[in-house]
Amino acid sequence: MELSKRQDSCRKQLKYDCEQLLSRFQRTKSVRFEVFANIWRDMKFSSIFYGTVNHEKRVFSRLALDAACIFFLPPFSFQIRVGGLYLLYSLYQCQTASPEEQIRLSLKNWEDVKRFENDAVDAQHLDAVYILRQLMFCKAFHFTAMPTLLNFNRKRNAERSMLCEQFMERASRPQELINNKLMEELSNIHELYEKLKTSVVSQADPSVNLIRKNLVPKLRSTVLDFYKWQQRRDSVDEGKDSGEGTSSQQESSKRADLIASIKSKAYGQAAEASKSRRHRQVEVDVAGNEAGSASASGRARVTKLSLKARTKENIHISGDEWKDTASTTLISRLATLDSAPEEKTIKRKRFKWW
């Protein structure tokens, strides 16, 4: 149990260090291995393997490679995936375990790796292609059926780590799909379709509406609106990041003022009760607050009349109405203790035959 806890804490720390390295690589807006190597040496990232004992070297290497392999796979952006590939290569070469611990990769993820290689070849990013093929040449990948190692008596619902949102790939598929060539072909097909429909269906029948007019302009305007929404969202996120310090200070000051006002109201209105009466409801002493704070310094116990006595004192009933109020009411039942409960007499109406 303690070993699993130590591994979880170590995995979180490794993930945090990898995110720090990749965030610096993302700010450079480059996919060159030379830029990544400068950041690697500047952070002295190879020193994470120092201090591991002989029987912990393989376990720690496994955790480090698993933490870095996450950034090499979707749904991260292309630059982050390139940085994850460079990070995997550097960790694999710098590990202290002998023989080297392999990079665990499932078969379903291998398809994503091959697509990544094809994209890098098409974009002429030869650094990423060379590093990937160098890992394949060294037989660094261990192809498995499952992405994680399955153990007996393991938690069925494992905790999923949150993905860094700034590393995620933006949804740019609509802009890539809607190009000028496609729009021209779509407009020609739509025009031909419209002619065929008008030849089959008579124009006099208004109930049949099988043609969507202005399809191509509407599709183009929708894609442009989506692109503008993305730009506005990115600008708002940058504004939030820049004003995070001042907004946090304002929120903390507002919260402190609110708590202080609540405390002043609570302690200013409620009178302090004695230890023997703390289980009862605290009554608010309004007259004492209006008179002044002179008597507040002394802790003299003030006896108050009961609810029944105050009711008799404030309410004056005369005439025959006093007889009706003399009977037992709900307030008097709560205020007094009766030795024996009263028996209610129930009057039953007799049925008249005529």
Using brief descriptors, characterize the structure shown:
354 residues; mainly alpha; two-stranded parallel ribbon; 56% helix; 2% strand
Helix and strand topology:
Blueprint: H1 2-27, H2 33-43, H3 57-69, H4 78-94, E1 103-106, H5 107-122, H6 126-137, E2 141-144, H7 173-177, H8 180-200, H9 215-242, H10 244-269, H11 286-291, H12 307-314, H13 321-325, H14 330-335
Parallel strand pairs: 1-2
Task: Give an overview in words.
With 354 residues, the protein is an all-alpha fold. Helices cover 56% and strands 2% of the residues. The chain has helices at residues 2-27, 33-43, 57-69, 78-94, 107-122, 126-137, 173-177, 180-200, 215-242, 244-269, 286-291, 307-314, 321-325, 330-335; strands spanning 103-106, 141-144. A two-stranded parallel sheet has the order 1-2. Helix 1 (2-27) packs across helix 4 (78-94). The protein is flat, with a radius of gyration of 39 Å. Mean pLDDT is 75; it is low at 269-298.
- The stretches of 5 or more residues where confidence is low (pLDDT under 50) are 269-298
**Number of DSSP-assigned strands:** 2
Distance between the termini: 89 Å
Strand content: under 5%
Write down the Rg: 39 Å
User: How helix-rich are the residues, as a percent range?
Assistant: 55-70%
What kind of sheet is the major sheet? 2 strands, parallel
What is the H/E string?
Answer: HHHHEHHEHHHHHHHH
Helical segment tally? Answer: 14
Spatial order of the strands forming the largest sheet: 1-2
Q: What's the overall average pLDDT, rounded?
A: 75
Shape: flat
The secondary structure category is mainly alpha
